[in-house]
């Protein structure tokens, strides 16, 4: 690394540089159909499979489908974002970008915007498919359902950006999934109510963001209007996403050692 580059003061956050970074990432993703399919098609396909697995018990699909509508986008965005960001570092692209007048905040925000655009598309398609084609029956507004699905996808994007700083290879990035995602999946209340868990496990689940994503979806199963519990859960998921993005900017490295 050029010593003068290392001593260059951090650039102030710039919306123009952030948008330019997002546009570059979107151009790259446009030429990667497999990644696009993973982000857009796979969550929808999983929901279709789930619907027909519980074809004889539609109430079960309503209960699990609403929760998984938020969980599937979180998982896929986490996986894609962590690998894509790590690929930028291992290829040397990240080091070249940060040698320019481009701050870490610009880079992280640009990635978040680019993948966030796909998160919006993914959430719209998955929510529309579940409610209007697969017959997912929720009491709350489909727009609130879409909001939670989108927040979960953005949380997955933020987590992927964050953990990519600690992986040295794409294989290691995939290995973070059991460490970061699976404990949340087990403790989020999908398999058993969190109130029925052992107190230690309940305490752990209380600090995991996926728990609040599932709680927000469960609120929509039983309440037509936005409740204070729903607002709290959505706010916590949003706050966690912003916090993780901030940590991602602070821990971003130029290259993998």
TrEMBL record:
Transmembrane spans: 36-54, 66-86, 107-131, 143-166, 173-192, 234-252
Key words of the record: Antibiotic resistance, Cell membrane, Membrane, Transmembrane, Transmembrane helix, Transport
Broad class of where this protein is predominantly found: membrane
Membrane association type: Multi-pass membrane protein
GO annotation, biological process: response to antibiotic
Span of domain ABC transmembrane type-2: 30-255
A GO cellular component entry from the record: ATP-binding cassette (ABC) transporter complex
Family statement: Belongs to the ABC-2 integral membrane protein family.
Name of this chain's protein: Transport permease protein
Species name: Streptomyces malaysiense
